[in-house]
């Protein structure tokens, strides 16, 4: 005889849950880390991509701490890993752009013609 309350939970041997335990939920910060990391990676070629990537890394640290303290009731570790990877990608792209711009600036400065400070006819 089935009940209308829904499917019965599967209980593994040795891993019985207490009835008052909360259900595991995905961390909203994990989703935010992924979104900010993705935005940071997509805008990494613009120097402004460093801001969302940095915020994503700081938020990832908070989300990991909260997930650890929740005792397994906050999920989303895969989203955190992906978001962190994308954030680091955005930061690396930003650093590459800054280095390329500095190198180009130094080369242009070195190629710039320079003139003498004194008149050529001075004895």
Description:
The chain crosses the membrane at residues 32-60, 86-110. It comes from Salinispora tropica (strain ATCC BAA-916 / DSM 44818 / JCM 13857 / NBRC 105044 / CNB-440). Keywords: Membrane, Transmembrane, Transmembrane helix. This protein is mainly α and 123 residues long. The protein has a domain at 25-110. 57% of the residues lie in helices and 3% in strands. It has helices spanning 28-42, 50-69, 77-111; strands spanning 25-26, 74-75. Strands 1-2 form a two-stranded parallel ribbon. The longest helix has 35 residues, at 77-111. The chain is rod-shaped. The termini are far apart. The model has no long low-confidence stretch (mean pLDDT 84).
Spell out the blueprint of helices and strands:
Blueprint (H helix, E strand, L loop, with lengths): L24 E2 L1 H15 L7 H20 L4 E2 L1 H35 L12
Parallel strand pairs: 1-2
Largest sheet: 2 strands, parallel
User: So how many helices?
Assistant: 3
Round the mean pLDDT to the nearest integer and report it. 84
Beta-strand level of the residues, as a percent range? under 5%
What's the shape?
rod-shaped
Number of strands: 2
In brief:
The protein is mainly α. It is built from three helices and two strands. Helix content is 57%, strand content 3%.
Main features:
123 residues; mainly alpha; two-stranded parallel sheet; 3% strand
């Amino acid at each position: 005889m089935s009940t209308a309350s829904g499917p019965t939970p599967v209980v593994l041997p040795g891993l019985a849950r207490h009835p008052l335990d909360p259900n595991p939920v995905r961390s909203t910060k994990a989703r935010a880390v992924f979104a900010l990391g993705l935005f940071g990676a997509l805008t990494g070629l613009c120097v402004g991509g460093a801001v969302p990537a940095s915020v994503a890394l700081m938020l990832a640290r908070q989300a990991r701490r909260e997930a650890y303290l929740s005792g397994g009731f906050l999920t989303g570790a895969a989203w955190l890993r992906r978001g962190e990877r994308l954030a680091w990608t955005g930061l690396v792209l930003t650093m590459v752009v800054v280095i390329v711009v500095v190198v180009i600036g130094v080369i242009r400065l070195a190629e710039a013609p320079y003139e003498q400070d004194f008149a050529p006819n001075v004895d």
